[in-house]
Amino acid sequence: MTLPERFRDATFESYEPQMPSQAEACRVARRFVAEQRRVSSWAERLKHLLGMRDDGGPRGLYLVGPAGTGKTHLLAATHNALTPEVPCAFLHSSTLFRQTEPPDAFAHRLADQYAVCCLDEVEIDDPANEMRLAGVMKTLAVRDVPLLATSNVEPEQYLATRLGDGRIQQFLRTAVREAYRVVPVRGDDYRRTREVQQSGQGWVGPPGATRRAMRQVADDASGPSRWWLFADLRRATTETAHTDLIEDLTALDRLFVEGIVIENTDDAFRLLRLIDALYLHEDAPTLYFTAERPPDDWFAPGQHAGIAQAVAEKFDRTISRLHALCQIHAVAREEIAHS
Questions:
Q1: What strands, in cross-sheet order, belong to the sheet with 88-92?
Q2: 154 shares its domain with 255
Q3: How far apart are CA 143 and CA 313, in angstroms?
Q4: Do residues 213 and 166 both lie within one domain?
Q5: Cα angle 313, 266, 331; round to 5
Q6: How far apart are CA 308 and CA 299, in angstroms?
Q7: pTM of the complete model beyond 0.90
Q8: 240-294 pLDDT, tens per residue?
Q9: What are the backbone dihedrals phi and psi of residue 285, each rounded to the nearest 5 degrees, phi first?
Q10: Could you give the CA distance from residue 31 to residue 29 in angstroms, rounded to a whole number?
Q11: Domain around 328
């Protein structure tokens, strides 16, 4: 429930809006912080003690927009501005979806400890997870705990809303917009358009040339490292529990992955879980990789439908994060031959 190390220093002042919607999202988040830090009147405290809810409008925020527009930065800045005076939980949606206890029980446990909940990267690829999300949202609303969420998709675009007309689907279509202020955060991916400090490298081009380029770096490297063919890495994700695999990899200084190729939804999903974990982990190894095609061409949403399309849309965020982790070079065969 703690903030990832990468965002420990996030503030509203360090957020640099490039679009009007980003500036407005920052203003909305600042107003939310001011409201949460405001001392309640005696009448408001009495209503709260009597279980009388204030229906004056949305209690939470839902920041929505494409990858790399600073939604998580704003979420982390809100968290940092509130704590420690206002107890504030910060969790990734994967943490929520890994819970084995019922959604209402998990939400009650959150409400017992925190006055505000920040939920990063609401996912859309699994109706069962969306049902769990809806259950948590409902219980937090009953407990009067505001929720701030980030997502790449509008609430109406959740996969579950396309599968029927039940109560969960109705909740996701309409109640979210009533309970939460939906705030668009538009713009270009800053990880692709602005200078970002990367520690790792990626080489794109003919297999032999890219392998030689990465081998030169590996041979000069010191400290614990691992060289994995992408096929071996993929196999490890099927044979080793995700948390154990990440613990194993974070003991390394450098991770070299040769020949990344995404052939199907499962490949994409396994790689995105790995990259997302490395991006957020404070002890992640420096990443190096080779591939024949540029990362942006690995798995495009327009080429898929249904769950595969949902994964592909989420994969775009992963590629954005890969640009933040690695400086990517286009390698021609002649460059290595004459080096």
A1: 88-92, 116-122, 147-151, 60-64, 180-184
A2: no
A3: 33
A4: no
A5: 75
A6: 10
A7: no
A8: 999 899 999 999 999 999 999 998 888 988 998 899 889 888 899 999 999 999 9
A9: -70, 155
A10: 5
A11: 190-337
